[in-house]
Design a protein that fits this description.
156 residues, alpha+beta, five-stranded antiparallel beta sheet, 7 helices, 5 strands, 49% helix
Length: 156
C-alpha cells in the first residue's frame, strides 16, 4: 500500500466508484461477497488498491496545503517541480490563530514585530504525491490557496 486505506466513511461516500472499480476487474457483487467471506486477504488487497487509486487522483490535483496551529501557519504551494512554503510564526502567547479572534488579530498585525514570515522552496523527492500526502497526514488541509496567494502578493 502506497498511502493509507480510506476510512469507512470515505468508502461509504465512494460506494459507486468502488463498485465501478470492482467491475473493471470483472468482479460481480456476488463474487465480492464471496471474496469478503472466503478470501479476506484478497478483499483487503482490493480495498488497499482502490484506496491508493483514489489518493493518487486526489493528490494529482492538489495545488495548495495549509497547516494552521495556534502560533504557526505553514502555507504550501505544490508547483510542478518543487513545493514552496510560506511559514508564519506569531510570537505572542495570547494569540491563537485557530480561533476567529486570533486570526482577526493576525490580519491586523501581520506586519508587526510579533509576526515572523519566512519563505522556502524544496524540490520534490522521487514521488511528488508522496510528499503532498505526508503533509496531509501531518495535519495539512487541501485548500484553494487564497491565503498563500494573498501572502505571495504582499511579500517582497
Amino acid at each position: 500500500m502506497k498511502y493509507r486505506r480510506l476510512t469507512k466513511e470515505q468508502f461509504e461516500e465512494l460506494h459507486k466508484e468502488f463498485i465501478n472499480f470492482l467491475a473493471t476487474q470483472s468482479i460481480t457483487a456476488e463474487e465480492w461477497k464471496d471474496i469478503k467471506e472466503n478470501k479476506p486477504e484478497v478483499a483487503e488487497e482490493e480495498l488497499d488498491l482502490f484506496s491508493d487509486l483514489i489518493w493518487e487522483g486526489v493528490l494529482d490535483k492538489v495545488r495548495f496545503i495549509e497547516n494552521i496551529g495556534p502560533t504557526q501557519m505553514h502555507l504550501f504551494a505544490a508547483e510542478e517541480k518543487e513545493m514552496k512554503l510560506i511559514a508564519i510564526r506569531v510570537n505572542s502567547p495570547s494569540v491563537d490563530l485557530t480561533t476567529a479572534e486570533g486570526f482577526a488579530w493576525f490580519k491586523q498585525n501581520f506586519m508587526g514585530d510579533q509576526v515572523e514570515v519566512m519563505t522556502a522552496a524544496k524540490k520534490y523527492g522521487d514521488e511528488p504525491n508522496r510528499d503532498k500526502f505526508e503533509l496531509i497526514e501531518k495535519g495539512g488541509v487541501i485548500t484553494k490557496g487564497e491565503l498563500y496567494t494573498w501572502f505571495e502578493e504582499i511579500l517582497p
